Amino acid sequence: MIKEFKKVMVANRGEIAIRVFRACADLGIRTVAIFSKEDIYSLFRTKADEAYLIGEKKGPLDAYLDIEQIIDLAKKKEVDAIHPGYGFLSENPDFARACREADIAFIGPTPEILEQMGDKINSKMIAERVGVPTIPGSKNPITSLEEAREIAEYCKYPVILKAASGGGGRGMRVVLRPEDLADQLELVKNETRKAFGNDDIFIEKYLEKPKHIEVQSLGDKAGNIVHLYERDCSIQRRHQKVIEFAPAFSLPMEIREEICKAALRIARAVRYENAGTIEFLVDSNGDFYFIEMNPRIQVEHTVTEMITGVDLVQAQILIAQG
Q1: Most C-beta atoms within 10 A of its C-beta, which of 26, 73, 85, 97?
Q2: 159 lies in which domain range?
Q3: Exposure of 197 in the CB half-sphere (CA atoms within 13 A)
Q4: Residue 102 domain-assigned?
Q5: Which residues contact 302 (CB under 8 A, 6 or more apart)?
Q6: Of 133-142, 152-161, 189-198, 230-239, which gets the smallest average pLDDT?
Q7: Is the preceding omega at residue 247 within 30 degrees of 0, hence cis?
Q8: Which residues are catalytic?
Q9: How many folded domains does the chain comprise?
Q10: By the 8 A CB rule, do 266 and 290 touch?
């Protein structure tokens, strides 16, 4: 069933909000911005057809996390769909479900897919089921320091602590020695709790100086899934991608093709819908391992747009329309 959108809200701020407004304008769709009181003079709010203050009594970030107020405003302004951008509520299944219950389209994966792929531990289990290698590590969130020590010893140092929810380099710390584990575990738990609302973390073997390759995927409501090739994001600072390029000419063509095939196996396993990125690490032997899927648009989506000519944000909107 095709439902053409007349008005789209962006539940985000800054560059990604402007990017979505531009895609909507090209498709002839009216746009709605939301902004916190601290963002009253920000550029993005002037780029939408309508803009409304939210979270007047909340902090500058909490305003963009208020699901109830965002949905209430969307209903009042007769919004057809909400684009979550990246960060904030973009990987939150409760938000996607609240949109569905309000009969507002969520421009992204379904709540069920977000629950499966937004959680790094769940997504690793799915990858293993379809025969895609994963890095040795914990299968469930760490519940104690003693458990963390046992798993770290099994994986052999160095290990990396990661937030089970979220991304963007937050909630990640490398532990080089056993005596550093307790302090780093507490730091990651605190950082994860503040950034993502829970402190579930896991441990895995840390690969030193790997290639970091990600595959852009698109899936529609009919079950069709394609990849738009890979990007190399190995140049990083504090686990944040600094330079990204495509194609990943630093790897042989056959490895790049195998990684893209593995990405599609994972996406098809959950009948992935909308835009998503499947990420891998490649070691010095050329062996690759699935690490996570980002079930949303990414900052670096424009690199793929440059080499394919596909407008990924427009594609997201068109897929959400059916």
Answers
A1: 85
A2: 145-205
A3: 11
A4: yes
A5: none
A6: 189-198
A7: yes
A8: 241
A9: 3
A10: yes
